[in-house]
Design brief:
Layout: H1 12-22, H2 26-41, H3 45-52, H4 56-69, H5 89-104
Helix pairs in contact: 1-2, 2-3
């Protein structure tokens, strides 16, 4: 069975090695190791899995994401936030201000 693998850009090994030398975040270091082992040493997925502790599927996803996004996979993604909000916090406070006044006056509030 022939296994075709896409080639990484030529300067990838040097760029990933720089990440390995400068990064202090363990998650970024493990990602960089998974990429570097293939780029610089052409290791198999099982060998990379033994070194990094990642599952093989995770390594495959990292490699394909590196081919798509390049060095951007080493910058942390922004998580969380107000994903289900319709207003900014300032607009929301302004909107609820009238209800708070009515509540202070002893009225029953329905929001």
């Amino acid at each position: 069975m022939t296994h075709y693998r896409k080639q990484f850009p030529a300067d990838s090994a040097e760029q990933v090695q720089a990440i390995l030398e400068t990064s202090k975040d363990i998650h970024i270091l493990r990602r960089a190791q998974a990429i570097y082992c293939r780029v610089a040493h052409n290791m198999s997925l099982s060998q990379i899995s033994e070194i990094t502790g990642y599952r093989i599927l995770t390594i495959v996803k990292l490699h394909s994401r590196f081919l798509r996004e390049g060095m951007d996979i080493f910058t942390p993604r922004r998580r969380g936030g107000r994903n289900n909000s319709y207003m900014t916090p300032e607009n929301e406070a302004k909107f609820l201000e009238e209800f708070a006044k009515n509540g202070d006056a002893g009225e029953i509030l329905q929001i």
